Give the backbone structure.
Amino acid sequence: MFFANRKDKSGRLYERSHAGLPSTRHLEPRALDYAVAVYKFAASLPEEEKYNLASQLRRAASSVPLNISEGCGTASKTEFCRFLSYAYRSLKEVVAAVELCQRLYPRLPQDRVGSLIDEGNQISRMTYKLMQTLDPGNPSQ
């Protein structure tokens, strides 16, 4: 995990959120690990999916930790929440794409597919909960 072991000059764990905003200390490394797992899964898809479904999976999966990180650099809770919503929607896209792979290619290892779906759903719940913490009255969530 990239961020979990980084420390600042005083020896405290490095967190990307700034004053007044909730920490993404648990969410961000998990999203990074998930993106890596999805990349590896996409590489295992049949060659004919290289420029289609595999490419879409990689783009959506990489969008998750990148949007979380970008949101941590924003100046307001509203902006942070907006980037989290992008990450949330990308997670939903990844899960749907993995489910599609499961249906199109039933010979894929079902335990691996199932764990990617479960992890994507868990991270999306974490992301949604953080969005609600940031802006509990937002009806668009």
